[in-house]
Automatic annotation (TrEMBL):
<dbReference type="InterPro" id="IPR050179">
    <property type="entry name" value="Trans_hexapeptide_repeat"/>
</dbReference>
<dbReference type="Pfam" id="PF17836">
    <property type="entry name" value="PglD_N"/>
</dbReference>
<feature type="domain" description="PglD N-terminal">
    <location>
        <begin position="2"/>
        <end position="79"/>
    </location>
</feature>
<dbReference type="InterPro" id="IPR020019">
    <property type="entry name" value="AcTrfase_PglD-like"/>
</dbReference>
<dbReference type="InterPro" id="IPR041561">
    <property type="entry name" value="PglD_N"/>
</dbReference>
<protein>
    <submittedName>
        <fullName>Acetyltransferase</fullName>
    </submittedName>
</protein>
<dbReference type="InterPro" id="IPR011004">
    <property type="entry name" value="Trimer_LpxA-like_sf"/>
</dbReference>
Length: 216
């Protein structure tokens, strides 16, 4: 499979390694820091506007290689591509249950474990060596950071960012577009548009739905 990465940063380089590990090839890295398309070795570099031509010409699929959940969503909305144009990339060292599902445009990094009947949405980042336990829901545009532990039956709703090394105990729910701080332990449900930190995690900031929607 030929893959086009949208974004050209450190996170994109990590995703490029994932693509190669799974036996595929990065044929382009597109970012609006480039004004005109050009080739670097065998890889095209250029502005994001080049994506549709490359999809058709190279029979390629796309990954949004940007760590920020809101920016990733904005780019997906801007491109307005069909789901079939997005790749799903799973590192060869990840362990995925046969009964789990992973959506379009999602990336699973090395050492990740996704257990039975877990559902992973579209354009999700499951970062290095985290665990998603059985029967979890991880909705679209979520980023779960390295080393996080998401225990059984947890629901992580749209656009949530779970920080590195955080733990969520069984059956808890994290509302959409919330942020869980690194190392936090979530023992209660977290409302949408909240920032929660600490052991146990406490909400320290809550945005209004109107303010948050304007940022998305």
């Amino acid at each position: 499979m030929n893959v086009i990465l949208i974004g050209d940063s450190g996170h994109a380089r990590v995703i490029a390694d994932n693509v190669v590990s799974s036996g595929n090839k990065v044929i382009a890295r597109l970012d609006d820091k480039y004004e005109e398309p050009f080739k670097e070795g065998e890889t095209w570099l250029g502005p994001v506007s080049e994506v549709r031509g490359l999809i058709d010409r190279e029979n390629a699929k796309v990954i949004i290689a940007i760590g920020s959940n809101p920016i990733r969503k904005k780019i997906v909305d801007r491109l307005n591509l069909q789901d079939c144009h997005y790749a799903t990339v799973v590192h060869k060292e990840a362990i995925i249950s046969p009964s789990a599902s992973i959506g379009h445009g999602s990336v699973v990094m090395p050492g990740v474990i996704v257990n039975a009947a877990a559902t992973i949405g579209n354009h999700v980042i499951l970062n290095t060596r985290l665990v998603i336990e059985h029967d979890c829901l991880v909705d679209d545009y979520v980023h779960v950071s390295p080393g996080a532990m998401i225990t059984g039956g947890v629901s992580i709703h749209k656009g949530v960012h779970v920080g590195a090394g955080a733990t969520v105990i069984p059956t808890k729910s994290i509302g959409q577009w919330s942020v869980i701080g690194a190392g936090s332990v979530v023992i209660d449900d977290i409302e949408e548009y909240s920032t929660a930190v600490g052991v146990p995690a406490k909400v320290i900031k809550k945005e209004s739905k109107t303010t948050n929607a304007a940022n998305r």
